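Annotated sample (chain length 76).
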Amino acid sequence: MYRIELVRTDGVTPVVIYTKVRTINQLQGARNTAYYVGNIGIIMANNEKLFWQVVNTSDSDNCTLELDSTWRVIAR
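Output written by the structure step:
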């Protein structure tokens, strides 16, 4: 199982604001993949940053979080 987390930070304190857990799909070939779908609305303060992190919750295998998604950012 892997968990992705969207983290907000002001440069001092990171806070997880979104999390989702998935099982890895055992696809044919050498590449196993988990798919995540979600929507979240965030209002950010000045100088805040967002970043994704991935957590392996089941074993010590390596994993890579590939960013090939759609992001939508709107000024308020």
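Annotation: DSSP finds no helices and three strands in the chain.
Annotation: The chain has a mean pLDDT of 81.
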